[in-house]
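Reading a protein record of the kind used here takes little practice once its layout is understood. An example of such a record is reproduced below.
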Amino acid sequence: MEFLLYISAFIAALAFVILVIYVVIAIKATKETLKDVSITIQGIEKQMQGVTTETTELLSKTNKLAEDMNEKTGKLDTLFDGAKGIGDSMKDFSQSLNEISNSISVASKIDQEKAAQAVKWGAAIVDFVNGRRNKNK
């Protein structure tokens, strides 16, 4: 019986050794996997740093572009204000020309009537003078 006890203790020890060997193999495999994961994470970290740098530069350029656009828009506002002033001046000038034209038109109608009367009087005087000359001859 003692012999069976030794055999069972030997089988238990052998099973324990086999179990320890499999645990060591599993730990080594896990270690390799974790090493690969660590390398992958480091690569991702480097890529993220590159993306972050590029994003920062892009944001900086975008801000400069926005400032430039605001500055140019301000200059265009001044230009449009000037153009509006010119348009207002042209409108005032056009109104002045219309008023002058209307004044000239009214004055020419009055002068036209006076001129017509003057022509009638002139024709009458010429007729009178011609009539006198004809009588004197």
